Amino acid sequence: IHTVGTFQVGDYVVFAFLFVVSSGIGVFFAIKERKKASSKEFLVGGRQMSCGPVALSLTASFMSAVTVIGAPSDVYRYGASYVIFGVAYTFVVFFTAELFLPVFYRSGITSTYEYLELRFCKLVRVAATFIYIIQTILYTGVVVYAPALALNQVTGFDLWGSIFATGIVCTFYCTLGGLKAVVWTDAFQMVVMVVGFLTVLIQGASRAGGIESVWSTAHTGGRMDVFDFDINPLRRHTFWTLTVGGTFTWLGIYGVNQSTIQRCISCKTEGHARWALYLNLLGLWIILFCAVVSGLIMYTFYSRCDPWSAGSVSAPDQLMPYFVMEILGAFPGLPGLFVACAFSGTLSTVAASINALATVTYEDFVSQCFRDLSNRAANWISKALCVVFGVACTTMAVAASYMGGIVQAALSIHGMCGGPMLELHFDNFKAGGLIVGITLSFWVGVGAFIYPAPSNNTRPLELNTAGCNFNLTADGSNQTSVTASALTSDRYWLADSWYSMSYLYYSAVGFIGTVAAGLLITLLTGPMDPKKVKPGLTRSVKDVICFCSEKFIHADFSEDKEDLGDFGMAWEKHTDMEGVIKMEEKVKSDNDNLHENGYTNAAFDHNETSQVQAKL
Question: What stretch or stretches form a coiled coil here (predicted)?
């Protein structure tokens, strides 16, 4: 590997500043909130957050180092079709804000999987929680390890030092400050990400000859062929895989993911939570745009000499750090700013994961086994869980080296688990289809890992080495073609069909499999009685379609957070369905008109119900 440059003292100072500020925020909230020693304050911030910092936190958490380093590399190799993810983001945020958020927020629950027990049974809740824990630890391992490895191999930045520093700092401020520290640290890290990207965009465009040169070269190289309407599900990226498959994948990440919903329900009102999601959509578009343009600029800069084909880097994920060192290496501190940008994404994702894992473990297991815990004991247990999962996520980073390209690996993990989990929140069928859905999605995902899709499905674009001033090694591109032909000559028959499916469809496969199995089980055992599905656990199609109602348009952010009322508190106190049903029936008897208006909100008390009706 050819090293462009190494980190200087100024770069380490800039990078260290990120860790110091992040830790400082944790210490600040630990001191500020020391008198509010309760698990609710620690895990959901006392439900008093505003939409601004929550929006920044959501964007920073899901636009991780996978996006900062992996997305530009993806654009470099496959073209700017990656930008179509913006369409999927739009659908995902809309459905999350209008379909899932109202149900979760008004219920007063802390763990999203608590909903599944109220909807189905305790076994489904436990199974879903276990799946989420495994999924999140796997994903976090990729997020920590892959960018650290890429930076290490290009810049000489210490690999294990950065991994352990990430784990220690995240665990530190999560344990001290809880959700408030996570949210405000994410907001700071989001600013660092944008500044780092802008630095690369400005200097990169200048070195590449300007925006016109970037556009012209990218167009000539086929990188601007964005819209491919081929419906073949085996194709890696087309308009349909990115919109349909991307929506399924990201809806599993956003709509029913504990990390997302936990921060939404921490907002002081439902209006703040909804606007946090829509403001987050703007942030997603901005980061996506920066990543795509960075990839196009990088392609233009290396259009005559591809570092990967020339052997200067050993993997595509190293292209972005290599590019940054080449264009910013002469400016002390700026390479450190980019590394801080990448690790801001890592820190925000890891911190959100640790906090969410601690939350679901406490709510779904600890609080169910030990019902009489004091606030102090609950708070200390929550902190201890943050430490445990911080260690687990850091340890998992070692195994991530075997997962391939970081973008595909990260989204594949979410896709395999997210589809079946998403379906559970959509239907009224029996929940037994979860096992079938998980089996199908892991079958195709693991099979694709063992038998990588052939190039006629992935279709990487041509890379040029004609302008390189050094010769290719003997084991250069010819070695790659021989390996590819060897792989295609003796392949399992499923390898070129089932296992070659686009990784973005893994979530859809799990979703459809769960629906089909649920229908079959329902036909064999009889349907669920619709009367047993309480109105507060569902969201009608009318409410989703007519989202621009007077209530939505005239949402008042100045009013205090709606009190969770009897039914919301009942969900936390009563884990048995009978207790919840009795409590809801009591609330419903206060005002039957709630159900008639399609806005049944069992979290409101009687006086607040009158106010809502007045607005309607």
Answer: none
CA dist 392 and 354 (Å) reads 9
Vertex 192: Cα angle to 389 and 43 (nearest 5): 35
Would you say 615 and 551 are in contact if contact means Cβ atoms under 8 Å apart? yes
On whether residue 559 sits in a domain, the answer given is: no
For the chain, give the number of residues.
616
* Number of CB atoms found within 10 A of residue 529's CB: 8
Instruction: Decide if 402 is inside a domain.
Output: yes
Answer whether residue 275 is part of any domain. Answer: yes
The identity of residue 332, as a single letter, is P
pLDDT at residue 584 above 60?
no
Give the angle subtended at the CA of 112 by the CAs of 111 and 118, to the nearest 5°.
100
Report helix angle 319-328 to 71-78, nearest 10: 100
pLDDT at 231 over 50: yes
Q: Is 10 exposed, middle or buried (0-12, 13-18, 19+ CB in 10 A)?
A: middle
Residue numbers of the domain that contains 112 = 14-416
Q: What is the mean pLDDT of residues 69-94?
A: 92
The pair of structure tokens assigned to 612 is 């809502």
49 forms beta bridges with 267
DSSP state of 157: -
Range from 43-47, 191-195, 469-473 that averages highest in pLDDT: 191-195
CA 101 to chain centre: 16
Residue whose token pair is 């219920």: 107
Closest CA to 394 of 445, 436, 354, 425: 354
For residue 258, give the amino acid letter. Answer: Q
Residue 533 is assigned to a structural domain of this protein:
no
Inform me whether the pLDDT recorded for 549 exceeds 60: no
Q: Look up the pTM and report it.
A: 0.78
Picking from 438, 321, 403, the residue whose alpha carbon sits closest to that of residue 140 is 403
pLDDT band for 484, please (50, 70, 90 cuts).
very low
CA distance 64 to 286: 14
Q: Could you tell me which residue, 482 or 347, shows the higher pLDDT?
A: 347
Q: How far apart are CA 10 and CA 33, in angstroms?
A: 35
Helix, strand, coil percentages in the chain from 3-state DSSP, rounded to 5:
75, 0, 25
Residue that is written with structure tokens 């403001």 in the block = 279
Look at the chain and report how many structural domains it folds into: 1
Sequence-ordered list of residues with C-beta below 8 angstroms from that of 563, at least 6 positions apart, any chain? 603, 604, 605, 608
Placement of tokens 């009013």 in the chain? 559
Query: 313 exposed, middle or buried (CB, 10 Å; 0-12, 13-18, 19+)?
Result: buried
HEC sequence for 384-397: HHHHHHHHHHHHHC
Q: What angle do CA 218, 222, 223 make, to 5 degrees?
A: 55
Inform me whether the pLDDT recorded for 79 exceeds 80: yes
Nearest to 284 by CA among 79, 89, 72: 89
How far apart (Å, rounded) are the C-alpha atoms in residues 145 and 348? 14
Q: What is the mean pLDDT of residues 67-89?
A: 91
Both structure tokens of 258 = 């504990």
CATH number for 157: 1.20.1730.10
